[in-house]
Amino acid sequence: MMRKPVVANQFYPGDPAQLEQTVAGLTPVVDENKRIAATAVIMPHAGYVYSGATAGLTISRVQVPETVIILGPNHHGRGAAVALGTVAWQMPMGTVPIDQELATQLLQISQIITQDEQAHSSEHSLEVQVPFLQFMQNNLHIVPICVSHIPYAECEEVAKDIAKAVQAVSRPVLLVASTDMTHYKSREQASAQDHLAIENMLAFDPKGLYETVHARQISMCGVVPTVITLLASRELKSEKVELVRYTDSGEASGDTNQVVGYAGLIVS
Hints:
Layout: H1 16-26, E1 40-43, H2 48-60, E2 67-73, E3 82-84, E4 89-91, E5 94-96, H3 100-109, E6 114-115, H4 130-136, E7 141-147, H5 152-169, E8 173-178, E9 183-185, H6 187-202, H7 206-215, H8 223-235, E10 241-248, H9 250-253, E11 259-267
Parallel strand pairs: 1-8, 2-7, 2-8, 3-6
Antiparallel strand pairs: 1-11, 3-7, 4-5, 9-11, 10-11
Helix pairs in contact: 1-2, 3-5, 5-8, 6-7, 7-8
């Protein structure tokens, strides 16, 4: 059993050669010695024509180890609230195995994280990150976690579980939080809303981010994966968050009346 791609030929090219060429074009070449040993990155998950340049610029700046935990929002509401997939992912650029040791650790440690394939079966938010990670790391293994909307206290618990599991395997692990920002507002409205959220990220304030997104009704789909990632990064002794790029879909489409915002950030 394998998870097959659900948005190939929609969000990104399904042809392996064309996909690799597309990702290469979106990902600047950065000297290996100048890449950051980051704890986490926060990247957008729209079609590559819209958000691929932000994703590529962000991932190009960090060292991508062999193991990556990807946390993305559950857009469909299927499956467990915090669903960990344990079957390999068949992708156009090659099959990506699960890091079974880390996945097992997480399932043993956590009361909330559940082994569940259903949540992943039609979810795009994690899938669109994978070709960028494959491009940066030939021997990629993933731990995919699809997250529904959960209370802040549960975010804290899941983050502690992730940090414990990462420490237990004692090798480099990168966390990837997959999120788009404000959806379908004017560029001016989206930018104002999104910068309120980004200010909380840059201040390394996950609780502030969670509360701001709710209070201001910011349509940031991956707020919960981002909050969990920031909390886990803090447990793993990270100290700073840096904004790589903020843009919106209007840059590609020319339509600035109804945009989706995209942000790329690095946590180290």
